[in-house]
Design a protein that fits this description.
The complex is a heterodimer. By secondary structure, chain A is mainly alpha-helical. Chain A has one domain. Chain A is built from eleven helices and no strands. In chain A, 37% of the residues are buried. In chain B, a hairpin with a 2-residue loop joins strand 12 and strand 13. The chains are: A mainly alpha, B alpha/beta.
Chain lengths: 260, 311
């Protein structure tokens, strides 16, 4: 497959994300929220740095995750609604490179959003004279991208199945409650019957455990944690890529046979 | 000897919308061909199946039955779209892009290099009446300007064939004139053009051939010459000498009794003076002559009414 058409479509998605200014608004609101929380004065400086790290990373992860879900879920419905898809797919580009371009563009926009957040995070940490645990921090950023890739692929698939509002809502629920789901299933597993256990196991495999890809807690309490081993990182990479590929494959299967 | 492949080849095309009891047949057994270098108009009332057929040609819709080939390739494949420029019926273009960026995107997808695009874009925009608008954001474009840009994107890769759905939709008279000039120029250069339009005078002036469609079926397809031939009507009202029968060769035309007189209708502009000479020579008394030219529109309306009439 020629990568150039994929890049051209991705570039158009990135251009939209940069020019529509929504990302700046999200980053600004999140930054103001973090700044407001920093004024809480019942911590010592060390406590405040940790508190800042924890709050900032949580807000940033949530804001970027939701941004990616919205960006991904609206790509195709908006193309259908405004009919911009017709002149585009009238060119010699297949539906697969087109969708791959959309996915890549969404990830580039996510990277842009994330980069802005990281700028805020690093500046904030330096302002509080805190240290950044670079090893864990780089791993956190990398795994966060894998998580965003799963969310983007899921967003595309949901937008093929549901209307835009429903796709965004389900995607957001999936993202925000993933950790609660994991915790809940591990608690109730022992108390359910064999059928229930099988159902929980099936759900555990069907739904990716996004918490596995979230190193924010470790990055906050970096003094207690070593960076993950290379082997774990490779395994997590395969884990993330597997689910992203499954969701993307489902999105493509729907999109391929969809009349326009 | 090489046999030229038809640019468009539609055979027994059936397209259906909906499922089960709600299934609607939008196109019902349409067949036609467009040969290289031809300019073919595709006309029909709203809902006749024009856009649906064009969408199948571009691979946006899938046929329920029939075969559709573009340059010999199955419609919808990347190869089938390699040499086609398409203008959709209604399309918006990314409002966050500048005109130049949009053409770079479409040109790039068509396989043009950056250098080719740099060289081509300013001239192309000028050609469609958007000269100097390269760096204007499309959200600032009017509907007519968007349509002109749509034409530019269809022409960017200098395709061998153009498929335009609603040729001059959204264009003012000046825009239509400009577009006609562009198409005439392309036609002269041998570009194949297949377009739908409600402006039948436009169709009449541009096309070599016309395919008329109604309720998903082809009503008629013929060259413009053939179609227009019966549209020139010459009428002669005459009385024969001594109540004799009119000369035998009159019967090759539409000859009817009209009271005591005879009414002759001739469609051929060259036959008409010959018939007058024959009548005069037979001693007929010519009471009245009249001529009228039906427009393609009149003819189309007549055909549609005929198709709608209860049998």
């Amino acid at each position: 497959m020629n990568p150039y058409p994929v890049w051209l479509v991705a570039h158009s998605v990135l251009l939209e994300a940069i020019r529509r200014r929504e990302i700046y608004a999200i980053v600004l609101v999140a930054t103001l929220l973090i700044a407001a929380l920093m004024t809480v004065d019942f911590f010592q400086l060390e406590g405040l740095t940790k508190f800042y790290r924890e709050v900032a990373l949580s807000i940033m992860s949530a804001a970027t995750g939701l941004t990616v879900i919205v960006l991904a879920a609206r790509q195709l419905p908006r193309e259908f609604e405004t009919r911009t898809i017709y002149p585009l797919l009238a060119k010699p580009i297949g539906r697969l490179p087109f969708l791959l371009g959309k996915l890549l563009g969404t990830m580039l926009a996510a990277a842009f959003c994330f980069a802005l957040f990281m700028g805020v995070y690093i500046l904030g940490t330096l302002y509080l004279r805190g240290e950044i645990p670079w090893g864990l921090f780089v791993q956190y950023v990398y795994l966060q991208f894998l998580l965003l890739l799963i969310l983007a692929a899921l967003g595309f698939w949901l937008s093929m199945l549901l209307n835009l509002d429903a796709a965004i809502t389900i995607g957001a629920i999936f993202f925000l409650f993933a950790s609660q789901f994991t915790t809940m299933t591990s608690y109730i597993y022992d108390y359910t019957g064999p059928l229930g256990q099988k159902a929980i196991l099936a759900l555990t495999y069907a739904i990716p455990q996004l918490t596995l890809l979230d190193l924010s807690e470790k990055a906050v309490h970096a003094q207690f944690w070593e960076p993950l081993s290379l082997r774990t990182m490779v395994e997590l990479t395969f884990y993330g890529l597997f689910y992203a590929a499954v969701y993307f494959g489902l999105a493509m299967a729907w999109f391929r046979r969809r009349p326009l | 000897m090489s046999v030229s492949v038809p640019v468009l080849e539609v055979e027994g095309l059936v397209v259906e919308y909906g499922k089960g009891a709600r299934r609607v047949r939008a196109v019902d057994g349409v067949s036609f061909r467009v040969e290289p270098g031809e300019c073919v108009g595709f006309i029909g009332a709203n809902g006749a199946g024009k856009s649906t057929t064009m969408k199948v040609l571009m691979g946006f819709l899938f046929p329920a039955a029939g075969t559709v080939r573009v340059f010999g390739h199955k419609a919808g494949t990347v190869e089938s779209r390699q040499r086609i420029g398409y203008l959709p019926e209604v399309a918006l273009y990314y409002p966050f892009m500048k005109a130049r960026e949009l053409l770079e995107l479409y040109g790039g997808l068509s396989g043009l290099s950056r250098a080719q695009l740099r060289e081509r874009i300013p001239g192309l925009l000028a050609r469609v009446g958007l000269g100097g608008k390269e760096n204007v954001l499309l959200r600032e474009f009017s509907k007519g300007m968007q349509q002109r840009l749509g034409i530019a994107q269809a022409l960017i890769a200098e395709p061998d064939a153009l498929i335009f759905d609603e040729l001059s939709s959204g264009l003012d008279p000046l825009g239509r004139y400009d577009l006609r000039q562009v198409l005439l120029d392309l036609k002269q250069k041998g570009t194949t053009i297949f377009f739908s339009s409600h402006e039948l005078t436009e169709v009449e002036s541009l096309c070599d051939r016309i395919v008329m469609i109604h309720k998903g079926r082809v009503l008629k397809q013929a060259s413009v010459g053939e179609l227009m031939k019966p549209l020139n009507q010459f009428e002669v009202l005459f009385a024969t000498a001594n109540g004799h029968e009119p000369p035998e060769e009159m019967r090759a035309h539409d000859l009817r009794r009209d009271g005591d007189l005879w009414r002759l209708l001739v469609n051929d502009v060259q036959e008409y003076p010959r018939m007058l000479t024959t009548l005069t020579a037979s001693g007929a008394d010519i009471r009245r002559t009249a001529s009228r030219t039906l427009s393609l529109e009149d003819y189309f309306i007549e055909l549609v009414r005929d198709a709608e009439a209860p049998r």
